[in-house]
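Pilot study result, target chain (189 residues):
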Amino acid sequence: MFQRPFWRSHIISDPGLSQSVEAGLENIVAGNAYLGLDTMAAKAEYFEQVDAVGFGSFQILSWLILLFGVVNLINTTLSNQMARRRENSIFRAVGLTQRQLYQMIVCEGLCYALTAAMMTLLVGVPVSLLACRAVSAMTYGGKIVAYRFPFLEMGLFLLALFGLELILSLWTIRRQKKCSLIEEMRALE
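Predicted structure:
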Protein backbone atom coordinates (compact mmCIF):
# COMPACT_ATOMS: atom_id res chain seq x y z
CA MET A 1 0.00 0.00 0.00
CA PHE A 2 1.31 3.40 -0.95
CA GLN A 3 1.67 5.83 1.95
CA ARG A 4 1.72 9.52 1.25
CA PRO A 5 4.51 11.60 2.77
CA PHE A 6 3.62 13.68 5.80
CA TRP A 7 4.36 17.40 5.75
CA ARG A 8 3.61 19.98 8.36
CA SER A 9 3.57 23.71 7.83
CA HIS A 10 3.18 26.45 10.37
CA ILE A 11 1.38 29.60 9.33
CA ILE A 12 1.80 32.62 11.55
CA SER A 13 -0.48 35.54 10.87
CA ASP A 14 -1.25 38.97 12.22
CA PRO A 15 -3.59 38.55 15.23
CA GLY A 16 -6.06 40.96 13.64
CA LEU A 17 -6.24 38.82 10.50
CA SER A 18 -6.27 35.41 12.17
CA GLN A 19 -10.03 34.95 11.70
CA SER A 20 -9.89 35.57 7.95
CA VAL A 21 -6.70 33.52 7.50
CA GLU A 22 -8.24 30.60 9.39
CA ALA A 23 -11.44 30.80 7.34
CA GLY A 24 -9.42 30.79 4.09
CA LEU A 25 -7.35 27.80 5.22
CA GLU A 26 -10.49 25.91 6.24
CA ASN A 27 -11.89 26.46 2.71
CA ILE A 28 -8.69 25.04 1.20
CA VAL A 29 -8.70 22.04 3.58
CA ALA A 30 -12.39 21.35 2.93
CA GLY A 31 -11.65 20.88 -0.77
CA ASN A 32 -8.82 18.38 -0.27
CA ALA A 33 -9.20 15.07 1.59
CA TYR A 34 -5.45 14.76 2.19
CA LEU A 35 -5.09 18.02 4.11
CA GLY A 36 -5.79 18.71 7.78
CA LEU A 37 -5.85 21.88 9.84
CA ASP A 38 -4.85 22.18 13.49
CA THR A 39 -5.28 25.53 15.18
CA MET A 40 -3.66 26.78 18.35
CA ALA A 41 -7.13 27.32 19.85
CA ALA A 42 -8.06 23.68 19.22
CA LYS A 43 -4.79 22.48 20.76
CA ALA A 44 -5.25 24.77 23.77
CA GLU A 45 -8.78 23.44 24.28
CA TYR A 46 -7.52 19.85 24.05
CA PHE A 47 -4.78 20.47 26.62
CA GLU A 48 -7.27 22.17 28.95
CA GLN A 49 -9.48 19.07 28.80
CA VAL A 50 -6.52 16.79 29.50
CA ASP A 51 -5.48 19.00 32.43
CA ALA A 52 -9.04 19.02 33.77
CA VAL A 53 -9.08 15.20 33.84
CA GLY A 54 -5.69 15.06 35.58
CA PHE A 55 -6.55 17.72 38.14
CA GLY A 56 -9.96 16.12 38.68
CA SER A 57 -8.33 12.81 39.54
CA PHE A 58 -6.02 14.54 42.01
CA GLN A 59 -9.07 16.27 43.50
CA ILE A 60 -10.78 12.90 43.98
CA LEU A 61 -7.62 11.52 45.56
CA SER A 62 -7.48 14.42 48.00
CA TRP A 63 -11.15 13.91 48.97
CA LEU A 64 -10.45 10.21 49.60
CA ILE A 65 -7.50 11.13 51.81
CA LEU A 66 -9.75 13.57 53.67
CA LEU A 67 -12.37 10.84 54.16
CA PHE A 68 -9.73 8.41 55.42
CA GLY A 69 -8.45 11.06 57.86
CA VAL A 70 -11.95 11.76 59.20
CA VAL A 71 -12.66 8.06 59.74
CA ASN A 72 -9.28 7.69 61.46
CA LEU A 73 -10.02 10.67 63.70
CA ILE A 74 -13.41 9.23 64.68
CA ASN A 75 -11.84 5.87 65.46
CA THR A 76 -9.04 7.40 67.52
CA THR A 77 -11.36 9.68 69.48
CA LEU A 78 -13.95 7.01 70.25
CA SER A 79 -11.41 4.36 71.21
CA ASN A 80 -9.63 6.84 73.48
CA GLN A 81 -12.89 7.84 75.14
CA MET A 82 -13.87 4.19 75.64
CA ALA A 83 -10.45 3.36 77.10
CA ARG A 84 -10.71 6.28 79.53
CA ARG A 85 -14.08 5.30 80.96
CA ARG A 86 -12.44 3.72 84.01
CA GLU A 87 -10.21 6.74 84.51
CA ASN A 88 -13.19 9.08 84.25
CA SER A 89 -15.13 6.96 86.75
CA ILE A 90 -12.26 7.13 89.22
CA PHE A 91 -12.05 10.91 88.76
CA ARG A 92 -15.77 11.20 89.45
CA ALA A 93 -15.45 8.95 92.51
CA VAL A 94 -12.80 11.20 94.07
CA GLY A 95 -14.80 14.38 93.53
CA LEU A 96 -14.64 15.51 89.90
CA THR A 97 -17.91 17.27 89.11
CA GLN A 98 -19.98 16.53 86.00
CA ARG A 99 -19.21 20.00 84.69
CA GLN A 100 -15.45 19.51 85.11
CA LEU A 101 -15.66 16.13 83.39
CA TYR A 102 -17.57 17.63 80.46
CA GLN A 103 -15.07 20.46 80.15
CA MET A 104 -12.24 17.92 80.16
CA ILE A 105 -13.90 15.86 77.42
CA VAL A 106 -14.58 18.90 75.20
CA CYS A 107 -11.09 20.35 75.71
CA GLU A 108 -9.50 17.00 74.90
CA GLY A 109 -11.51 16.73 71.67
CA LEU A 110 -10.63 20.28 70.63
CA CYS A 111 -6.96 19.60 71.37
CA TYR A 112 -7.12 16.60 69.01
CA ALA A 113 -8.69 18.78 66.34
CA LEU A 114 -6.19 21.60 66.82
CA THR A 115 -3.26 19.17 66.68
CA ALA A 116 -4.63 17.57 63.51
CA ALA A 117 -5.13 21.00 61.90
CA MET A 118 -1.62 22.16 62.78
CA MET A 119 -0.02 18.94 61.53
CA THR A 120 -2.03 19.20 58.31
CA LEU A 121 -0.69 22.70 57.71
CA LEU A 122 2.88 21.98 58.81
CA VAL A 123 3.23 18.78 56.79
CA GLY A 124 0.61 19.20 54.06
CA VAL A 125 1.62 22.61 52.69
CA PRO A 126 5.31 21.76 52.07
CA VAL A 127 4.38 18.38 50.58
CA SER A 128 1.77 19.97 48.30
CA LEU A 129 4.27 22.66 47.21
CA LEU A 130 6.80 19.99 46.26
CA ALA A 131 4.13 17.87 44.53
CA CYS A 132 2.87 20.88 42.56
CA ARG A 133 6.40 21.71 41.49
CA ALA A 134 7.22 18.14 40.45
CA VAL A 135 3.96 17.51 38.59
CA SER A 136 4.06 20.83 36.77
CA ALA A 137 7.70 20.29 35.76
CA MET A 138 6.84 16.86 34.33
CA THR A 139 3.61 17.98 32.67
CA TYR A 140 4.52 21.36 31.24
CA GLY A 141 8.01 20.62 29.96
CA GLY A 142 9.95 22.16 32.82
CA LYS A 143 7.69 25.18 33.33
CA ILE A 144 6.69 25.54 36.97
CA VAL A 145 3.03 26.39 37.59
CA ALA A 146 2.35 28.71 40.53
CA TYR A 147 0.96 26.99 43.64
CA ARG A 148 -2.48 28.06 44.77
CA PHE A 149 -3.46 27.32 48.38
CA PRO A 150 -6.83 25.49 48.51
CA PHE A 151 -8.64 27.85 50.89
CA LEU A 152 -12.10 26.38 50.24
CA GLU A 153 -10.99 22.79 50.77
CA MET A 154 -8.98 23.70 53.87
CA GLY A 155 -11.93 25.62 55.29
CA LEU A 156 -14.22 22.64 54.72
CA PHE A 157 -11.64 20.34 56.32
CA LEU A 158 -11.33 22.53 59.41
CA LEU A 159 -15.10 22.90 59.69
CA ALA A 160 -15.57 19.13 59.44
CA LEU A 161 -12.70 18.46 61.84
CA PHE A 162 -13.81 20.80 64.62
CA GLY A 163 -17.49 20.03 64.08
CA LEU A 164 -16.84 16.30 64.24
CA GLU A 165 -14.81 16.58 67.43
CA LEU A 166 -17.53 18.71 69.01
CA ILE A 167 -20.20 16.16 68.01
CA LEU A 168 -18.12 13.27 69.37
CA SER A 169 -17.53 15.15 72.63
CA LEU A 170 -21.24 15.88 73.00
CA TRP A 171 -22.03 12.23 72.27
CA THR A 172 -19.64 11.14 75.03
CA ILE A 173 -21.16 13.64 77.45
CA ARG A 174 -24.67 12.39 76.64
CA ARG A 175 -23.54 8.82 77.19
CA GLN A 176 -21.96 9.82 80.52
CA LYS A 177 -25.22 11.42 81.66
CA LYS A 178 -27.15 8.19 81.04
CA CYS A 179 -24.96 6.09 83.34
CA SER A 180 -24.58 6.60 87.04
CA LEU A 181 -21.17 6.36 88.64
CA ILE A 182 -22.01 3.03 90.28
CA GLU A 183 -23.21 1.52 86.98
CA GLU A 184 -20.03 2.60 85.24
CA MET A 185 -17.79 1.20 87.97
CA ARG A 186 -19.64 -2.15 87.85
CA ALA A 187 -19.45 -2.35 84.04
CA LEU A 188 -15.69 -1.88 84.08
CA GLU A 189 -14.92 -4.61 86.61
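One observation from the pilot: The two ends are 88 Å apart (CA to CA). A full batch analysis is planned for the follow-on phase.
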